[in-house]
Amino acid sequence: MNHTQTPFSSSDDDAGTMTTAQQSAGSGNSTSLGPTVDGSRHWRDVFWLGIFLLHLVVVGLALGVLGLNRFRKKDRLNIDQYTERFLENQAGLTEDYWPLYAIAGAISTVIGWIWLLLLGSHSNQMMKVSVHLLTTYLAVLSVLCFWGKFFFWGVAFAIGSGLQFLYIISVIDRLPFTMLVLQRSVKLVWKLPEVMRVACAFMLVMLIWLALWSFGAAGVVASSMGDSGRWWLLVVFSVSLFWTGAVLCNTVHVIVSGMVFLVLIHGGREAATMPRNPLLQSLRYAITTSFGSICYGSLFTAAIRTLRWEIRGFRSKIGNNECLLCCVDFLFHLVETLVRFFNKYAYVQIAVYGKSFNHSARDAWELFQSTGVEALIGYDCSGAVLLMGTLLGGLITGTCAVIFTRIKHPDREMMMGSTAILMGMVLVGLAMVVVESAVTSIYICYAEDPLLIHRWDPEFFNQMSETLHQRLQHRSSRVREGLSQNRLPDHIQETITV
User: Fold this and answer.
1) Where is the composition biased (Polar residues) (predicted)?
2) What is the pLDDT of residue 26?
3) Which residues of 348-379 are buried (b: 16+ CB within 10 A; e: fewer)?
4) What percent of the chain has pLDDT over 90?
5) Distance CA 21, CA 465 (A)
6) Which of 358, 369, 354, 347 is nearest to 438 (CA)?
7) Domain map of the chain by residue range?
8) C-alpha dihedral sign at 232, 235, 237, 243
9) Mean of the per-residue pLDDT values for the chain?
10) What is the pTM of this model?
């Protein structure tokens, strides 16, 4: 495989790169890329592992105390004496709101399992529903919030609907290729039933933590503190839940990536060269030596990915507005620098080679840039489409929580609804991450040795190679166009020479 190709080479070089890739597909040695499943690994990013575990202990104690303080008796632990100056509302009980969180958790779990079941038989339809329904759903929620005089949430949902619509318009030409990648990824993971069982098991683990989290959150909602104090506490606990959910999702990502990589390396699940108990080995590494790297990456990766998707979408539709293009280009290059050290493809490298997170992210990105595959990844929107499905599941869960809360506690419906949205996103995301893991593994395998994809699905390999060739040609033409526009006129160059 030729690793000297840059994404901005000429079209002739692009054709040479594709020829080299296809030749590699016919003669590459995939066994040299095998993961270190049997060798010993060192513990990575131990500091962040300690921070995450300490955070769980502290937050868990705080949630338990706040929930217990209002459980069956108001101010059971006499905490109100420390918050007397913030008391503005009539206190309630934890059990007034805890069952509502339980209903929200049950709804989001059902949605997540439905996604897993339908992805195997109706993957294309499910992805289209996620893309087109989310914009409409956000707009409807915005109208309902304005009607209910929740102006902040009305504006927030209206902005979200507008951004979602603009993003879809900006990437509408990429969706056919995106759906193709997602279909093949679903096809791959659906043949690995143990992978689906891992996702279900981690959803149960998340539900156990959510039982404690919702117990404390219900105690906060039921407290007599003012709205600002309760909102601040809920924001802190929501950030904690986001990090915990991201860690569990990325742990599944590492486990599934290791399994999928092994299947592609050895040519199938039933191959004689497959190691014994590959899933258990991936699980062992994910929750021991590589867990610190997962905790570290989970803090930043999701936010950087989302920002990069939005900037790339707007950047492609700006046109000739040079001032706006300059500002967006500055943000784009800043985010691209961050992506080099924080990207989701690092989890495949972690699963396969046991590297630290930053080392894995950097190696994966350099691999993509040296082979030109980064152009293909930039064109693919599969991560954004899966995120839309996750957001839609969270919004449905939040809507149900608001409806149930409005019946008995109409003054606290938005607190319940906003936190239920996050709960729903975490649980549905645990189902979605199975497909995303397959997508990232496919791209890593294609960049390292196209033979792995060619042997698994020759038709898909040809479609990927053709799309990559087109994207590299497109980039080369844009670079040549930029150079021609920046070239000085001949008479000015002659004057400068004299």
Assistant:
1) 1-10, 17-34
2) 39
3) bbbbbbbbbbbbbbbebbebbbbbbbbbbbbb
4) 35
5) 8
6) 347
7) 111-207+231-482
8) negative
9) 81
10) 0.82
